[in-house]
Amino acid sequence: GALWMCIVLNPHCKLEQKVNWLKQLKKWNGVDVCPGEDGNYGNELPNLTNALPQGANANQENMGQCKSLEYQHLPARNFLEEGESYLMLAVEVALIGLGQQRIMPDGLYAQEKVCRNEEQLISKLQEIELDDVLMKIFRKQAVFLLEAGPYSGLGEVIHRESVPMHTFAKYLFTSLLPHDAELAYKTALRAMRLRVLESTTPVGDTSRSHHIASVVPNRYPRWFTLSHIESQQCELASTMLTAAKGDGQRLETVLESIQKNIHSSSHIFKLAQDAFKIGTLMDSLPDITLLKVSLELGLQ
């Protein structure tokens, strides 16, 4: 059903194609087995066309399909299959779109558009109250994105110039945290990386710490929005530090991630200040572990 929705959302298809697709879907809807390659058979597929706005626009960041789903206009109680609403499907497609791995485009305008589209879609998602049913979708997509291959921006291996997932991961983290803390941290920690700033061409033996300074960085691509991206990375780290207060093991894991992935000294210093503030709130005793984190980051 989700795949068919992406097909029907194609802004370049002609009206007669949509009419033919609708006939095919109605035909398949009448049989109870999965369709073969000849297209003569089919399982029960939801009729999605009534949920889709006409003339949807797609863009090069693969977010246009997702952004065109105006959640507030979708009939949440009009069920596609048992227990499945248009709202649920729209949320799931939005999460899929946000989590896709995509290469940062060239040019200032295109790069700003990537950030703007992502933030607009997340802002729309934040308008929705997440109930137990929607949380199941969040869990499913978070697990899928962590385990997926090159399709996913949260996969184990990503391209060096892949658009970072910091902003999306912060939203996932805060949404998942009250329901599944382990998955929330796993997702956020995976998203902390910023491959474009990593040095990848070693000179000599890098197995010993004193040789790390000899690593020669490759050519950095022209990322005009890099300062904004690094700020979002810092925000994600600060959000995890705040949530991990009182949990020494989680704080140690977050500290290691910060030390490994954040390359800006000013942002590391800001996180040292954040850790100190969080650890010395007036309404509680000082959190010794957070103060140690603050010291470690300050020294770094």
Automatic annotation (TrEMBL):
Superkingdom assignment: Eukaryota
Protein name: ZSWM6 protein
Cellular component, GO annotation: Cul2-RING ubiquitin ligase complex
